[in-house]
Design brief:
The structure holds 2 protein chains of 2 kinds.
Chain A lengths: L3 H11 L4 E6 L3 E7 L8 H12 L1 H5 L3 E7 L1 H5 L3
Helix pairs in contact in A: 1-2
Chain B lengths: L2 H11 L2 E5 L9 H12 L6 E4 L4 H10 L7 E4 L2 E4 L1 H10 L1 H6 L7
Parallel strand pairs in B: 1-2
Antiparallel strand pairs in B: 1-3, 3-4
Helix pairs in contact in B: 1-3, 2-4
Classes of the chains: A alpha+beta, B alpha+beta.
């Protein structure tokens, strides 16, 4: 079974993040990802960065990952 | 026509296309159901939809088309708009209503 911790580790391994929080039940996950790499990027581009960090896991292991992607400044401003 | 060409033809020949699991009348996944609800809440009563569960080639090909590994996916005027999270955020901020305003009558 896929754990939220392993999803979090994969995201951190592929993307420099200030903060990553993942919760989930083994198939459906929700993630908060805070990264300076999101600055100036659209929502689509931000999600693609996280998907890229997860790579093949996204195709094979994870049915659904709902995510909120913020820069540190946006988080400080209240998300 | 290969799968990528088929998808390109679908998104370019319809102003609003939703790739989803199931149909708008009977969605087979909560995220697809939410995408349908958001479109309807924006006043887009009828739109083109593609049930990826009925077409394995499209189901795989659509993930490559926009470099996006999940379903649902919304396309407006041939452009990829986003998946379920992004549609919800854009609806909450009013961006989606603005984007769909010019196309909702012809959809």
């Amino acid at each position: 079974m896929v754990t939220p911790e392993s999803i979090e580790a994969s995201i951190r391994a592929g993307l420099p993040c200030e903060r990553v929080e993942v919760v989930g039940d083994g198939q459906h996950f929700q993630a908060l990802v805070v990264s300076a790499a999101f600055a100036g990027k659209s929502r689509v581009q931000r999600h693609q960065l996280v998907y890229a960090a997860l790579g093949e896991r996204m195709r094979e292991e994870v049915h659904a990952l709902s995510m909120k992607t913020l820069t540190p400044e946006e988080l400080a401003a209240g998300g | 026509m290969d799968t990528q060409q088929r998808i390109k033809a679908q998104v370019e020949s319809n102003p609003v296309v939703l790739y989803m699991k199931g149909t708008p009348q009977m969605p087979q996944c909560g995220f697809s159901a939410m995408a349908v609800q958001v479109l309807q809440a924006c006043g887009v009563g009828s739109f083109a939809s593609v049930n990826v569960l009925a077409d394995p080639e499209i189901r795989q090909g659509i993930k490559e088309f926009a470099n996006w590994p999940t379903i649902p996916q919304l396309y407006v005027n041939g452009e990829f708009v986003g998946g379920a999270d992004i549609l919800r955020e854009m609806y909450q901020s009013g961006e989606l209503q603005k984007l769909l305003e010019p196309v909702k009558q012809q959809a």
